[in-house]
Specification:
The complex is a heterodimer of chains A (205) and B (95). Chain A contains eight helices and no strands. Chain A is globular and about 55 Å long. The relative contact order of chain A is 0.14. Chain B is α+β, with helices and mostly antiparallel strands. Chain B has a single domain, classed as Winged helix-like DNA-binding domain superfamily/Winged helix DNA-binding domain (Arc Repressor Mutant, subunit A, Orthogonal Bundle), CATH 1.10.10. In chain B, α1 packs across α2 and α1 crosses α4. The longest helix of chain B is centred in the C-terminal third of the chain and has 19 residues. The chains are: A mainly alpha (205), B alpha+beta (95). Chains A and B meet through α2, α3, α4, α6 and α7 of A and α4 of B.
């Protein structure tokens, strides 16, 4: 049974939270880079900043076009598609930075609007590239966890694993709409896992 | 063959500060020398640098022996470094 559209629209609430978490992690990565001058930390900063900018821009575009302007015609759906492309590119850029880091080491939308615009905001090609890079990143974070055996590393591994799953769900969303919502939930959980790690680290003495 | 682990300048400075902190916040150069595993000349260069940054201060005791004392700025840096070290380690990055 398909999820009600009210639940599917929750992505409008989740995306800004995801952006906020990404910006917080980016801020700490930059702080760490400034102190250590370690380039991998700079890559992590750029990666999370790109992810945050991507999520924030797509939230704003989706919110304005679907909620404020109640998009209907080709021009607006074209803009929505463009924002989806920018988001996809920023994500790929973010994952490329993560790969480089490891390599060195709601408002209401019209009821039927979301399924109708899914092809414009979900790009399976970008998601496929993202999945490919995330497999590498997740494996590296898993290796790091097995070496350190620390809860912090485990949370980072879980975070990347969930983000990887979210992209698989986004690809499946073109077949079954419900996966779009599940993808967002999974993505947010992944970022929450990383935020938990950050809180643990910042509270440590 | 034994692999030698490269220590960055920051890591060596942190090692020196950690040794002073472990010795109760003040200790002599000999203890730091052995603890940090540095040559005398290199240690003196690092100590001068840490003094200039206001992280430690040089003290002269009544017996004319030199000791180095960790300052508040040094304590803050140590605490901050431990956090970023954990953050970096969580992502598999070594500083």
């Amino acid at each position: 049974m398909a999820l009600p559209i009210q639940i599917l629209r929750l992505d409008l609430v989740m995306e800004p939270f995801g952006a906020l978490i990404s910006f917080v992690i980016a801020y700490y990565a930059l702080k760490a880079y400034r102190l250590s001058s370690e380039r991998s930390l700079l890559y992590l900063y750029f990666g999370f900043a790109a992810l945050g900018v991507g999520m924030a821009s797509r939230f704003l575009a989706t919110f304005y076009l679907l909620v404020i302007f109640r998009v209907r015609d080709v021009f607006w759906t074209g803009l929505l598609e463009a924002s989806g492309l920018v988001y996809g590119l920023l994500r790929i850029l973010a994952y490329a930075f993560f790969t480089a880091a490891y390599a060195g080491q709601a408002r209401k939308v019209k009821g039927e609007a979301l399924p109708a615009v899914l092809p414009f905001i979900v790009n399976p090609f970008f998601d496929f590239i993202s999945v490919t890079m995330l497999i590498y990143i997740t494996v590296q974070s898993a290796i790091n966890f097995t070496l350190t055996k620390r809860a912090d590393s485990f949370l980072v591994f879980i975070g990347f694993l969930l983000i990887l799953f979210s992209h698989v769900f986004f690809m499946l969303a073109l077949i079954i709409d419900d996966y779009y919502f599940i993808g967002h939930i999974t993505q947010l959980l992944g970022l929450i896992a990383m935020l938990t790690m950050l809180i643990k680290v910042s509270k440590s003495k | 063959m034994t692999a030698l682990k490269y220590r960055s300048k920051l890591r060596i400075s942190i090692d020196i500060l950690t040794i002073i902190a472990r010795e109760g916040g003040e200790t002599g150069p000999t203890r730091i020398l052995y603890g940090a595993n540095l040559s005398h000349d290199r240690l003196m260069t690092y100590l001068e640098n840490l003094k200039e940054l206001g992280l430690i201060e040089e003290m002269k005791g009544e017996d004319e022996k030199t000791t180095y004392r960790l300052l508040d700025k040094g304590v803050s840096l140590l605490s901050e470094f431990r956090k970023i070290d954990r953050l970096a380690e969580a992502f598999g990055v070594s500083i």
